[in-house]
Design goal:
By secondary structure, this protein is α/β, with parallel strands linked by helices. It folds into 2 domains: about 120 residues, Rossmann fold (3-Layer(aba) Sandwich); about 80 residues. The chain has 10 helices and 7 strands. The longest helix is centred in the first third of the chain and has 22 residues.
């Protein structure tokens, strides 16, 4: 992927969120088809990375049943697995980071959830938009992206370390003041340094406008897709 991340993803795809129920169902089919194609090409068992309730995903009424029934379903508390990975309803940074770890050395597809905009993540990784078949467009400011990279390089001992907390305390407000949205900050950092995902640590130093952005987004929809 890049110099910051210890992971290597052979291919990356994403499905942007849609509030249209028919389009949402079509998105599930696209992501499952794509992940199954990657698994067949790699000769590997596919992985479904979810938050919890592994057995629920294999039930015939599940939106991803046909995929889950042939895949290894990995949860936050379960055993890990490695292979071409699908992350449905990616509502948290930890879930996407977990999917990236499962997909290390393989392909990854993530279905966006309104609680976690992933345009910045997709742009950083050059993910293919399965709705259009085209790579994600990158509307981020290159200078601000480089400043996020600089912050990531200070997080080698975590957000609570002296270098990490000092960098976050000063650089995050500067990035917000320069016009970087929380969505693009989170997406970029998640893509380049998934090993440093710590939502509580990030929110501790997040400037007021980013906290407001988070509260507004979560108030709109915090349901997880299943």
């Amino acid at each position: 992927m890049n110099m910051y991340s210890p992971l290597t993803l052979t291919r990356v795809a994403w499905v942007p969120w849609s509030w249209d129920p028919d389009e949402a169902r079509a998105a599930h089919q696209r992501s499952m088809d794509w992940a199954l194609e990657q698994a067949a090409a790699a000769g590997a068992t596919p992985v479904l990375r979810v938050h919890s309730h592994a057995h629920d995903w294999t039930h015939r009424t599940s939106s991803h049943a046909r995929y889950a029934q042939v895949a290894t379903v990995v949860t936050d508390r379960g055993r890990g697995a490695r292979g071409p990975t699908l992350v449905p309803g990616a509502h948290s940074m930890g879930l996407v980071a977990g999917g990236m770890r499962c997909a290390n050395g393989f392909a990854l597809v993530v279905e966006e959830h309104p609680a976690l905009p992933l345009a910045g993540w997709a742009a950083e990784l050059g993910a293919v938009n399965l709705r259009t078949g085209e790579p994600a467009e990158d509307h981020r400011n290159p200078e601000l992206v480089e400043r996020v990279r600089a912050l990531a390089s200070s997080l080698y001992n975590g957000w609570s370390s002296l270098p990490g907390s000092a960098a976050a305390k000063h650089r995050m407000p500067e990035l917000a003041a320069a016009g970087l949205t929380l969505a693009d900050f989170v997406g970029t950092l998640l893509a380049i340094a998934p090993q440093h995902v710590d939502e509580k640590g990030m929110l501790k130093w997040a400037p007021a406008q980013w906290k407001t952005e988070t509260e507004t987004r979560l108030a709109r929809n915090t349901d997880t897709a299943r």
